[in-house]
Specification:
It is a single chain. The chain is mostly helical. It folds into two domains: about 10-230, MFS general substrate transporter like domains (Growth Hormone, Chain: A), CATH 1.20.1250.20; about 235-443, Growth Hormone, Chain: A. Helices cover about 80% and strands about 0% of the residues. The chain has helices spanning about 10-50, 55-70, 70-80, 85-100, 105-120, 125-135, 140-165, 175-200, 210-230, 235-240, 245-275, 280-305, 310-325, 335-350, 350-360, 365-395, 400-420, 430-435. α3 (about 70-80) packs parallel to α6 (about 125-135). The longest helix has about 40 residues, at about 10-50.
Length: about 450
């Protein structure tokens, strides 16, 4: 009787990664574009539907209220039911709802569609976090999730010029902004069908692995789960007594109040300041997000090399505030304003990666697990507040400079709050530990 050939763990991890990760990255790319494309569509949609800036601000923000509703239930369904079926449901419903935005006529219809879009998409990101625990051990999980972070600015950088092209079409009685929602929403429906047939729930269901590979992978993941259970758990009330939990939650609430508003209102701001065409506006917006894509990479490299997280985060937040203030200096030509905004992008995408390392550096494992959920809820509630306030300001006569100064104050306040976080552990991390930045919550 011959013994089974030993498992090449490196080859197995690579095999799993190439099967699981690319589809997830494509899904998240589409998800973020469908979430944010209303900012691009607004350049034509607002005048066609006679929607005020406050209507748009509330409509953009209400997405985050819907998003919060199914965030936790979605993760539980992935754990106890089926990731494949749940993600397929999410994709199909959010694609149809995003496409349905093309046919809204009234503010109430706009609010309802945006709220439902948030509900439809809500279970995706926390579900992905749980789904990856079914396939990757903790060290490999961080590497697998890192592509999601890059997908955010990449989807916006590509989506801006694409949206500019779509806004000019006029086919079959539908105008450009309607085609924007249709063309960018329906791919999610197709991906839902692909997901139903391509995605695999757990290693034991994977026909593309050998029986020995399935057994080995299940064994590794089960051993890690037992080790985590042995560490014990902490309650939400216990976590709320830890000062660092509040510094982190309030810090990201303040920062994201400005950050989400900056993302959604950037095209409008650029158009109002430049006075240029819609197409030029969206290309300028694409340049902004391209700088953001570069910043995510630079942030990870610098933070990993130095071992510092806290001051990298604070530096990014404060620099974003300063560059936004620079963009409001009176009498500047638009070219110089755009330079300030590109510098803003470099800073605005620099802080998230080191920020999401702070819970695991400043809290014990069980406290961090509870706190991350609270911190992420604050991060998403900020999306509602920032967009609603920005829309209200624009409707009530505040100019672009005043709005940008409001966003700058949010970033500055966030940086000040995060500076109070106490990092007690040594900053130097191993290469594998340093990879575990911002991999457990959504940016």
């Amino acid at each position: 009787m011959t013994s089974a050939a030993p498992i090449d763990s490196v080859a197995l991890r690579r095999k799993v990664a190439w099967r699981i990760v690319p589809l997830v990255i494509v899904i998240y790319f589409i998800a973020y574009l469908d979430r944010a494309n209303v900012g691009f569509a607004k350049l034509r949609m607002a005048s066609d539907l006679k929607f005020s800036e406050e209507v748009f601000g509330l409509g953009i923000g209400i997405f985050f209220i819907g998003y919060l509703i199914l965030e936790i239930p979605g993760a539980l369904l992935v754990e106890h039911w089926s990731a494949r079926k749940w993600f397929a449901r999410i994709l199909i419903t959010w694609g149809l709802i995003s496409a349905a935005t093309a046919f809204v006529k009234t503010p109430m219809q706009f609010y309802v569609v945006r709220f439902l879009l948030g509900v439809a998409e809500a279970g995706f990101f926390p579900g992905i976090i749980v789904y990856f625990t079914h396939w990757f051990a903790s060290g490999d999980r961080a590497r697998a999730l890192s592509g999601l972070i890059m997908a955010v600015p990449f989807s916006l950088a590509l989506g801006a010029p694409l949206s500019g092209l779509l806004l000019d079409v006029n086919w079959f009685g539908l105008v450009g902004w309607q085609w924007l929602f249709l063309v960018e929403g329906l791919p999610a429906v197709l991906l839902g069908v692909v997901t139903l047939f391509w995605m695999t729930d757990r290693p034991r269901h994977a026909k593309w692995l050998t029986q020995a590979e399935r057994d080995y992978l299940e064994g590794v993941l089960a051993a890690e789960a037992r080790a985590k259970e042995a560490q014990g758990k902490i309650t939400i009330l216990q976590a709320l007594r830890v000062p660092n939990v509040w510094w982190l939650a309030l810090g990201i609430f303040a920062t994201n109040t400005g950050g989400y508003a900056l993302t959604f209102w950037l095209p409008t701001t650029v158009k109002n300041i430049s006075g240029g065409s819609v197409q030029a506006t969206l290309y300028y917006s694409g340049l902004f997000y391209t700088c953001g894509l570069l910043s995510v990479f630079l942030s990870g490299q610098s933070s990993d090399r130095s071992g510092d997280r806290k001051w990298h985060c604070v530096a990014g937040q404060v620099a974003t505030a300063l560059f936004l203030v620079g963009s409001t200096i009176p009498g500047q030509p638009f070219g110089l304003v755009m330079v300030w905004l590109c510098l803003t992008a470099l800073a605005a995408f620099f802080w998230p990666s080191p920020f999401w390392a702070l819970p695991t550096l400043t809290l014990n494992a069980s406290a961090a697990a509870v706190a991350i959920g609270l911190i992420n809820m604050c991060a998403n509630l900020a999306g509602y507040l920032g967009n609603h306030v920005t829309g209200w300001m624009k409707t009530h006569g505040f100019g672009e400079s005043a709005c940008l100064l409001f966003l700058a104050s949010c970033y500055l306040l966030g940086g000040i709050i995060v500076s109070f976080v106490k990092v007690n552990r040594p900053p130097a991390l191993s290469h594998r530990e340093s990879a575990t930045i911002n991999q457990t919550t959504e940016p």
